[in-house]
Each structure stands twice: as C-alpha cells, then as structure tokens.
Amino acid sequence: MSGTEQEKTKQSVKQVFANNFFFLKLMFTASPQYVLFQALDAIRNEVSIFFEHTVGIGYVLAAAEFGYPFEKVAKFILILAGAITLGMVFTVFAGDYMAERERPKVREKIKMMLYEKAKGVDLKCYDNPEFYNEQVLAISEVDKQIERVLQFVKNVLGGLTVFISTGIFFLLKDKISIIFVVISFFLSIFFEQIYNKQNYKVKVEGIPFTRKRDYIKRIYYLSDYAKEIRLNPDVSDVLFRQFEEANDEVYRIEKKYAFKKWALGFVKKYLCNDIFSDVIFISYLVYQSAVLHNLSFSTVAILYGSFGRLKRGMRVFSESYPYACETSLYINKIRKFMGYEPTIVSDEAIEPEKSAKEIELKDVSFAYKDGDEMLLKNLDLHIRPGEKIALVGYNGAGKTTLVKLLMRLYDVRKGSIEADGKDIKRYDVEKYRDTIGTVFQDFQIFAGSVTENVILDVGEKADTDRVRRSLTDSGLMGRVDRLKKGLDTQLTTEFAKDGVNLSGGESQKLAISRVFYKDAGLMILDEPSSALDPIAEYQLNHAMLSATGDKTVIFISHRLSTTRNADRIIMLEDGRIVEQGSHEQLLKLGGKYAQMWKVQAGAYIAV
Hints:
20 helices, elongated, Rossmann fold, 10 strands, ABC transporter transmembrane region fold, alpha/beta, four-stranded antiparallel β-sheet, six-stranded mixed β-sheet, 3 domains
C-alpha cells in the first residue's frame, strides 16, 4: 500500500469516537426507541448473567460448602429465576419486536439523506474515479455500519456492566486477580487494532477490482446487454478474461496480507488471551488455595468462573476500540460524502424568468480537468430570444460540452455565460435549470408509468391534457393509445410483469415529450432524432418547431437534414466556432458545413 493510502487509515482516538458518535446521532434522530431499547437490553443481559453465573452459582456453592438451610437456598433461587424471566420478557420486546419495527425506519432515514446529497453532487465528481468509488462505498455500507455502530454501543455498555459488576466482586474477593485481566486487555487492544487495519486495507485496495467484477455481473443479468452478448458470443471471452483478471487481483491483494493477518490473529487470540490469562491465572488460584489457604474451594471455583467472564468482558473492550476504528474508517467516507459542498452554487440566488432566453457566451474556455487542454476555446456567441440554433460538427468538437455549460452542469474555466443579460452564476441553480428543458442522447427510461416518465414526477401531479399534448407533439401518442392501460402503462419489465419495453425510436420520442411538457424558456436537445426513421424525423422536426413556438431552442445533430430548418447553424471544430449562418448561407459559403452536407446528402440532392 502506498504512503498516501496508509495515511488514509490513520485516525486519532478523538476522530474514531467522533465518527461513531456522529453516526449514532443519525440513528437516534431516526428512531430514539431503536437505540435506547437495544442499549438497555445490552445492560440488562450482562446484569442478568452476573447474578445468574456469579452471584447465584457462588451462593449455591457456598451453601453446599458451609451448609446453608434448604429453605433459604430455595427462596433465593426462586427470586433469582423470577428476575431472570422478567429480563427475558424485556429482551423479547426490546431485542425482537422493537428492533424489527424500528430498524427499517433508521435505514430509510439515513439512506434518504445520502440520496438527497447524491442528487446535489456536482456532475464533475462523477469524472473523478476516487470520489465515485467513495460515493459507492458510502451508500453501499450504510446498512452494515448501522449494525456495526449499534453493536459497538452494545459491546461498550455490556463491557462496562461486566467491568463494574464483576470488577467489584473481584475487589471484594481478590484484588490481585484484576492485574492479569488488565495486562491481557492492553496486549489484545494493541494487536486487534493492527489486525483491523489490515482488513480495511484489503477491502480498500480491492474496491476497483470488485467494482469491475460487479460490472461484469450486471452485464450478464441486465436486459440492456442481452442482444449484444447473444449476437457477439466472442465478447464473453473478453468479459471472462476481465473477470478472471479482476478476480486474480482480489486474490493477490488477499494473499498479500494473508500471512500478516494470520500471525496477528494468532497473537491476539491465543498468546494475549488464552495462554497468558488461563495458564497464569489458574496457577495463581491453585497457589492461593492449596499452598496459602487464603481462599475457600467455593471462592476459588467462582473466581475462576468469574475471571473467565471478566476476561471476556475485557476482551470486548480490547476488541471494541479496533472494531470502532474500522467502523470509523467507513463512517468517515460517509461523513465526507455527506459533508461535500457543491462548487456550482448561486452567487446571488436570483430567480430567472421562464420566458424565451437570450444567451451570450463571452470568451468561454473549458476543460473537464485541471491541466487538460481546453475543449472549448475562446467562444463568443450571441443567441436571440426565440431563436432556433443548431450545433453541428464532428465528434469531439465540443457540442455536448457547450450545452452542459449552458445548463451549469459545469462552470466555465474562463470567460462567462449570460442569460437574459445576467451571468448565469447569479441565478439560483435549481430554478435556473428548471427553466431549461433538456434531452440528452443518453437519456433514460425509468421503471414507472408513461405519465411518470413524461413529467418525471409522481403521476398524481400530472396535467393529463398537457401529457397527451406533449406525446402528440413528439409523435408517440398513437402508440400509447394502443396500449391496454394507456398513460398508466408501466414501462420496462423491471417490476411489472405486464410492463412494456419501448423501441429505441419510441423511447426517444418519449424523452422528447418531456421537453414539450416542461414549461421552459430554453430547450436543449442533444441528438433528438438519432433513433428515428427519416419520416418520423421529418415529422418531429416540424412538430418541434411548432411546439416550441417562441421559445429558444438549441439542438445538436449529426444529421444535417435535421438542422436545415434552424434559424442559424453553428459549426464547431476543435472547440471553436468555425462557421455560422443559415443552411442556405453556409452552403453558398462552400466551407466545412457545405462539405459535410455534400457527404451526407450530395448523392441524393443536387446542391
């Protein structure tokens, strides 16, 4: 492991307890009953065991050794049995009923907080593999860390109960015995902490490879890839090889730490506990009883049995801190993720107008990462309100990057973008984006009804007339009307047996209907007709121009037949605007656009 990675596993005692306490507070906020009843049951359990195994058995042994009256012993046993029974009833209520009822509430509360945070994370974070790995780890570890933090609390409270109750018993019977437990405790806690750090290192180093294995697993069970795998069986060889390579890396990492983990495990389990404590302490008890005659036989028996319990209680302490350290490492990632503050924020939180936007780019340059070459270079562009703009150019020209900047999914590195005369950084981010209707070429269809997929909200909030009008404008309403449940039809078969999987072109029409439904002053469509046939494309173009009315529209397309009706065509190349004008103007110019047009349509249309 590199020095940087080793630094990530270093934690102060304060940080360990702060992280665990932070997560405990989240759990307590979600359900105080869940935390309190589990904590009380941990204390009750140890108190019950103390009275049953230490006080009870000690009393019975002393009664046999010194001849206590039978009635007195019987009364003691009945009272003890009654108290233990009441404790068991409490455990059934607190440990079973309350836990089953409240645990889902805790999980839901914390996961919703993470999902809310994920919703606001800057898009650039997904370009950072390290951040993405930590986000995946944070969300995937929530359920496990809830159980671990609760177990830590129960271990600590149970251990304290054992320490106080049995410790007092030892002080009354034989003070020297505690020395053996204390020595065992400090040795165990030292080696346990080292052991848990090794476990964490194995998991963290293996994350990139386990993610690759999970990715390949998804490929084989998701319908998205089913056709490609069956039509291209050779791809399985590639995937199998990648799976084996990832598996080999996971094995290599585990093997790398295997001997150290085994050695540490042997030392902490046997040398620090069993051999040291049992052998030495038994010898001490034998000496006290058989040689010095300081202890009775009943006292020796109960001290030995109680020492075993106290030792296990102290081992809980020795294991709890390293256990808390490991938990803290994961919680630290959760806290780091929850504490992430977006960099794309509003300077003044001005509320934008929903009317058609006037857009102006001033000397805009942009690169996704620091130090990379600029993908957009010194762009200057003015778009009038209600103007229909087409962005064209070969792959990598910067078209999609440009519209992402317009939507403030990223911020410019240099220059500025203004909407209606104001820098877009001055607008409230969410409200500004809400004034933009967008369809990307990698849009998604969600497992929900047709209506929900159009409005991207719960169906009850839909304006049914607007939904139908939007689907009509996109050319999909006829297909929806033929479905048995119409607008209520569930899309995808992910959760509904009678769900419908739309074709590529139908899915694209549905995605476009989202833009028509949204009351947005600016519409951005990235390859809006790539999956449509020529007739459907022609119909969509006319519908789009009609439906958008006086709204500002920016669309990207590699099909120049889609762009020819735009008010103005902007041609990008290598991050710069190289040509702009109407279709006819650019053809007369005889430049790069005209050359691209001839390649696509020259064989069919005389220019």
